[in-house]
Write a sequence for this structure.
């Protein structure tokens, strides 16, 4: 029984590391093509991925803590990671809103959103697989925290769908306003994720879009929006 538990926690740590490294790669590629093609929605998507890296590190730390000290409350490292994540999401929200306003007034249009389509499709596939395996491990360990992290990964999948719809719509119509709408939707999601990060840092249990509850079980650990 103990051997099986150790195996499941190793798998949980591996999934957390895959999430971190994938978001680093996704962020680099998205920001590069977002700047190259002047598409604000893809640029915002890439910046969101970098913020998710901070959150992912906190989730990885949380899993290690649960494995060795399952009855211990979230430590200072996790809470600080949540605060940094929340602040980063707020800064991203402000930056996207200001940039969208400026680009809208200037009538700016992206050169192409082709790479937004490619990246979003890869992200949807990757997030779908991560959700499946995180849910499987979380249920096997009876860990509300790991299950909640899987729900947060679902929020990232929704973000990828927003990018896909905005990118395909622009390629079909050529209307610059579509890219701006996509970037504003990403800004809204970032704001929500920032709120949830600060609420969790205060010990309020949230699950990526669900109503926040009073602190209770392990879910109050760092299961940030992992977006």
């Amino acid at each position: 029984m103990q051997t099986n538990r150790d195996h499941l926690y190793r798998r949980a740590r591996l999934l957390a590391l895959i999430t971190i490294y994938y978001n680093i790669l996704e962020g680099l590629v998205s920001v590069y093509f977002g700047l190259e093609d002047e598409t604000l929605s893809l640029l915002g998507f890439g910046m969101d991925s970098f913020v998710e890296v901070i959150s992912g590190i906190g989730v990885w730390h949380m899993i290690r803590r649960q494995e060795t000290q399952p009855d211990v409350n979230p430590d200072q490292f996790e809470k600080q990671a949540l605060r940094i994540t929340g602040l980063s999401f707020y800064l991203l929200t402000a930056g996207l809103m200001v940039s969208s306003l400026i680009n809208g007034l200037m009538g700016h249009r992206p050169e192409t959103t082709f790479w937004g389509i490619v990246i979003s499709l890869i992200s949807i596939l990757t997030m779908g697989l991560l959700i499946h395996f995180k849910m499987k491990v979380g249920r096997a360990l009876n860990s509300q925290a790991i299950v909640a992290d899987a729900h947060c990964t679902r929020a990232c999948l929704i973000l990828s769908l927003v990018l896909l719809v905005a990118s395909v719509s622009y390629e079909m119509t050529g209307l610059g306003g579509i890219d701006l709408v996509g970037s504003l939707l990403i800004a809204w999601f970032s704001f929500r994720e920032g709120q949830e990060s600060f609420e969790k840092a205060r010990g309020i249990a949230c699950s990526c879009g669900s109503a926040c509850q009073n602190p209770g079980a392990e879910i109050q650990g760092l299961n940030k929006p992992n977006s």
Summary: The chain has a mean pLDDT of 84. Residues 2-220 form one domain. The helical segments are 2-36, 40-68, 76-106, 114-140, 144-173, 176-201. Residues 2-36 form the longest helix (35 residues).
